[in-house]
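GNAT family N-acetyltransferase: structure tokens wanted.
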Amino acid sequence: MTALTDGAVLRPARPGDEAGILACIQALADYEREPDAVDNTVEMLSAALFGEDPRAFAFVVAGEDGEVRAIAIWFLTYSTWTGKHGIWLEDLYVHERYRSNGYGVALLSALAAECLTRGYPRLEWTVLDWNEPAIGFYRALGAEAMEEWTTRRVTGAALEALAQR
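Answer:
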């Protein structure tokens, strides 16, 4: 657990944080212009983060009252080129009223430290191409754009059709 300057703490998520994490996820979806895209629930988060075989992990910034103010949700990747795992940052979100308190830097710093502690050479994530504030923030931290790479996704009917081929 890391104390931050305003009385908040950065710590791994723990049971009881699910509703606050879900509120951050919904706020992020709203910001990313996808307010109806979140199907996640408190129960699903609990299973993913704290179940028998957790596949996702989260760091949170929590206030003195336990309020979740910011999140970093991540999972492990594997690079066939390096032969090592890495961390994929799925979501980074700081509630608007808490921005400029250093929470984003603290969360990314914690993820970078997690990489180094585990011997992982990569911390990766995506950012929407129109999200200039985030792009500038990431650039200032030394993150490089992977311009030659584009993300692909198969969902819904296309996923079902592909599975039947």
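The first strand starts at residue 2 and ends at 3. The CA atoms of residues 65 and 155 lie 39 Å apart.

Cheers.
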